[in-house]
What we know:
Layout: H1 3-24, E1 31-38, E2 41-48, E3 77-80, E4 84-86, E5 89-91, E6 94-102, E7 107-112, E8 128-134, E9 137-150, E10 154-167
Antiparallel strand pairs: 1-2, 2-3, 3-6, 4-5, 6-7, 7-8, 9-10
Organism: Flavobacterium macacae
InterPro entries: DUF2911 (IPR021314)
Pfam family, one: DUF2911
Amino acid sequence: MKLHKKIGIFLMAVCMSTLANAQEKVVKSPAETATGKINGATITVNYGSPSVKGRAIWGELVPFGKPWRSGANNPTTFETDKEITVEGKKLPAGKYSFFIIPEKESATVVFNKEFKQWGSYKMDEKDEVLKVKVTPKKSASLTEKLVYKVNKDNVTLSWENWDIPVKVK
């Protein structure tokens, strides 16, 4: 067999192997969307949904006292088409990055006008539109995959053993 034929067969085998591996790739923290209406405002939360996978989340993977992007991959975004009241404070219509600073007994929720940043590494206080304190609740059961729900009067993040409700009017 000639050398160029052997090279061709080798390259074809490499391409087929690459294609087979690409088809098997599973997204570890898939993009998800939660949407709903509260008092006539349409609220949309876009986030990456990681899994617990046996890890300790609050205070460990997500450290206490540090801003967290409230999901995986790109920052979580929170969008409302009308002005709303969040924990008693006004939030204008718009699209925001949504951060949480967890503590042992509470969590601070931050709505930031810079929604195209990656992670929480460049989160700047000057870009904060609203900051409110909320109280996490112990979940009735383990929530394996992070999930947001837009309910009739709140938006709730649930993951591992915490539910973090944020009151919205």
